[in-house]
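Appendix B. Chain record.
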Amino acid sequence: MSLCVMREFQGEFEPVGSFDAVDTGDIIFSYSERYLSQKSAAPLSASLPLRREPFHSNEYGGFFSGMIPEGPVRAELSTRFQIPQSDYLSMLARLGEECVGALMFRSDDAVESRAGFRPLTQADADELHKSEIVEIANAMQISRLSLAGAQSKTGWYLPRSADAKTAGPGQWMLPIGSAPSTHIIKVASGKHPDLPTNEQVCMDVAQASGLCVAGSFASEALNNVFISERYDRVWADGCSIVEGNRTPMRLHQEDFCQALGWPSFMKYENQQNTNYMAMCGRLLREQSSNAIADVQIFGRQVAIDYLLGNCDSHLKNHSLLLGPNWRSKRLSPAYDIVCTTILGYDHNLGIDIGDHRVIDEVDAKDFEFVAEDLSLPLRRYRAICCEVAECTKQKLGELSEASGDLGRVATQIFGDAAPRIKVLEQFAS
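Structure tokens predicted for this chain:
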């Protein structure tokens, strides 16, 4: 079996390369000669530079395996497809018509599926809450959609004219085949029913503290669901029409794990002599089209994640986003910011801050190391952190006065963040 890799470029899909079995039993990935000869050719990842020599699995595995779900959803898909969880290429052959970024995967023996949309009903929304793992796997199988990450989530489509905050099940649609989704839908688990509100508070605070964030909110019309706009989908002139619905253009992206060529299990900083903070800074300086600005933005997010108790800020929760021409590359809008310290998980950070892995042990001196690791002028980083601390306090204070779940969860996060705000203020003073 040969698996073709395609990219969306200026509204059209074109072949980029393919996976092919060789006599040694290995499966190689190669860019096609036709693609390499084009002036518009660009690497799929920083870890997969343009070249005629084929890539072996130890070279391409980090990028391509990082495009499929992790955790229980992956296990459920593995069972129903009767393929090993480690066989990410077979997963992509089954699910890879709608992925994170601008790629599509199609096997040579596959029957091309029809692009379309299926209207969602209230029953669909209700089932999502009853058994989110099974229902999300069902949605992925029907829509041939693969979203990376460990959290239960799927992709839905909403016409541009509709208001996502008030849209009910009758307006949302499930994309089929190569039809693109416009929003990512996350379902609260029974263990953490406040998770959508938690994420809404954190994203609102992050935006108020100077971060560009993915547009997101806890839905008013869908019970206990968190909705995030896909920043890798943009409405543009000349968008294609599918079943009478305008569709957005796909933008390509890669998370930091993929850019480094690392598999997903390396997303958390390990116990060895690695410095993920310095690696993130170096990656941005090497890859970003505006490295000075993006390194400062990343440093700002480090401070915000710390204040909000987001211990799940790992390498797959930071991404590089390519422009429509596949030439420019910038740090993507921030996403997946959650106060994990109030959820009962351990307090180990995804990326160490200075000399400490446990968030409660971080002190003001550690932020001097962050500035050093990111090659940021200390004075400039102090100013950034001073702004972050003030904005965080102000926004959490405002949200704490809101009624209902929003005010209750914001108050809880504010109380949890209080000692960390003092640490950051000490550094910034």
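Further analysis of this model is presented in Appendix C.
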